[in-house]
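# nightly structure sweep
# worker-07 picked up a monomer target from the shared queue
# config: single-sequence mode, recycle default, output format = C-alpha cells
# input follows
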Amino acid sequence: MFIQSCQDENIKIFVSEEAGSVLGYCITRKLEFKDHHMFFDMMILEIVNLCVDEKARGKSIGRQLFERAKEYGNEIRATRLELTVWVFNKNAKQFYEHLGMSERTHRLGMNI
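# output follows
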C-alpha cells in the first residue's frame, strides 16, 4: 500500500496494489472549520471514495484502506471520520457499520 499525493494538499489517496495491479483505493479529503460562524472549530477527515475491485473483495483490502484512513485522521488530528453511503448500497452500509461507523445525518436530493 502506498500514498499518492495530488495537487490539493487536503486530498490524500491510499492505494492497495499487488504485482502492479490496483486492488483498491481510498480517497480522503481534510475539511477544517476554524472561526466559522456556524460550526465549532473542528477538523473532519472525509472518505470521498473507497473502492475495492470485485475480484479482490473478501481479502480485507477495504478494511485495510479504511484503517489507513483512520490512522491518517489521527496523524492530522482530525476529530471525526465521515463518509456518504448511497441508500441503495446496503452492502457498503453494512461494511461501514461493521467497522464501527454509525448513521449521523440524512442527505436529501432531487432531480431538477
